[in-house]
Amino acid sequence: MIEAHDDLHARAWRALMSGEPDVKSAQASQLYDDWQAGRIGVPAASRCPLQAVEDAGRPLRPELIAHTALPRRRPGAPEGHAALLHAIAHIEFNAINLALDGVYRFRGLPAEFYGGWLQVAAEEAYHFGLVSARLGAQGFGYGDFPAHRGLWDMAVKTAHDPLARMALVPRVLEARGLDATPPIVASLRRVGDAETIAVLDIILNDEIGHVALGDCWFRHFCAERGLEPEATYLALMAEFDAPWPPRPLNVEARRKAGFSAGEIARLERGRPRRENQSEP
Ligand SMILES: [Fe+2]
Ligand SMILES: [Fe+2]
User: Fold this and answer.
1) 41 CA from centroid of ligand 2 (Å)
2) Closest ligand to 176 CA?
3) 101 C-alpha to ligand 2 centroid (Å)
4) Distance between CA atoms of 102 and 94, rounded to whole angstroms?
5) Which numbered ligand comes closest to the C-alpha of 202?
6) pLDDT in tens, 34-56
7) For residue 125, how far is its CA from the centre of ligand 1 (angstroms)?
8) pLDDT tens digit string along 211-242?
9) Beta-carbon contacts of residue 63 (< 8 Å; ≥ 6 apart)
């Protein structure tokens, strides 16, 4: 039941703080449906207070641990196969929160910003459901393996600025997902998991759109501030100690998502030497 005072930012907040994955997914999907149908728009002045979110809504499990403590995920053994699916489900769950947080947090932006990220939140909820179903087919559920909290850390670090958020979440973290997909698909092919490969095809196609949306808004905010986008991106990666993408990059997907040939070549050369120490 939607309450009269629930505006766009308040509803994004409610979904963001929902701890139950099915409820969060349903709220994200409903929010985008309502946006598309014109039942909700951008409020002139939101009554939803702006607050820091150290931890978005999530279930008690999975246990969150340092990414360095996570066991390696190889799909050759049944448990490793399920652990890989669980890691992908965890990324999708966090991605719902990341998209919702952008809608909740960044105020006074053009309607297209909110519509775009509501669509992303709904697609991430769909991805989470698809991957959870594959995990269920292996006899496991979300929460059955430990997971890491690195994705949300970047949301906290970029909560003050939509330009930094666009650079470091879609253009770094989601773009790394584009790179990671072909090797994961190859490993799943070796164990004959065609159903999950079909799911990852859907996800990759949608994720190109998410990175492209982030690219578009990143360039928009740079233009507003008179900043050169490609130098600004590299400067932000250094400032925020963002993870450098491991090679090989998914060049075709990154080009479709808005990365220039020059940027891709720069990323392929690796992190500047003096910053190598912090690379995990
Ligand atoms: Fe996704
Ligand atoms: Fe995404």
Assistant:
1) 23
2) 2
3) 13
4) 13
5) 1
6) 999 999 999 998 989 999 999 99
7) 8
8) 999 999 999 999 999 999 999 999 999 999 99
9) 146, 147
